[in-house]
Amino acid sequence: MTRLLLGVALLGKLALCATAQEMLAPPGQVRFESTDYKNILHWAAPSNSSSLHYHVQYKIYGEVDWLNVSSCQGIQRHHCDLSSVTSDTTEWYYARVRASSAPSSSKSAWALSHRFNSRWSTKISPPTVKLNSSKQRIVVQVKAPRVLVRKMHNNVDYNVYVTHGNGKEEVYEITCCSYKLTLTELKPQTHYCFQAQTVIPRHMRSSDRSSAKCITTA
To answer: Who contacts 6 (Cβ-Cβ below 8 Å, separation ≥6)?
Structure first.
């Protein structure tokens, strides 16, 4: 009888452990967010758990094996930089993340991202714009974020939009690897506004326009 009771107690304990593992919900809202080819995986913590650790894996679309992201094993933050392992703009990728709880050694199921490709999914940032003027001459300097320039090996072009005092707009193209546009013989005491757009020719991608910067000639 004693052995029977011990057996029942042991089975009950095992059942409780299994239930605890099943109750650990997977992370939610697993998604890539990419700006200028910096590819960050984000997720939300399960609603019924705290003090969890997370484990991230990725794979190339069409491949069988999942690979660990070495810098994102047993982490407590809710994001992981996958830029280095998803850098090939010709490939599509998946990522997945699961939660674990050290006290109970329980793990959640894997939560999967959507298929991701940085060429089509990344958001291109507009360049910064600096203006210098002297008499009837304005020099426009544009520069894309450093991470984007480095990724594209300086193969970055720009469109510069110039709005004249009468409202007329002109567009100038700045091709690699110049970062300046010089406008001369401008009307004196005239208001000009400038916006710029980053262009990645080889990927047929472009940014939104930058915010307008205005200047009045002397």
So the answer is: none
* pLDDT (tens digit per residue) in 49-65: 778 999 999 999 999 99
| Contacts of 117 by beta carbon, 8 Å cutoff, 6+ apart | 89, 91, 92, 93
Q: Give 60's contacts (C-beta < 8 A, 6+ positions apart).
A: 91, 92, 93
* Confidence (pTM): 0.82
- Determine how β-strand 28-35 pairs with β-strand 38-44: antiparallel
81 to each of 32, 40, 113, 160, 178, how far by Cα in Å? Answer: 10, 5, 14, 32, 31
Instruction: Give the model confidence (pLDDT) of 32-88 as tens digits.
Output: 999 999 999 999 998 877 789 999 999 999 999 999 999 999 999 999 999 999 999
- Bridge partners of 189, per DSSP, are none
Nearest to 95 by CA among 107, 113, 74: 113
How far is the C-alpha of 165 from the C-alpha of 161, rounded, in Å?
Answer: 13
What is the per-residue pLDDT for 177?
77
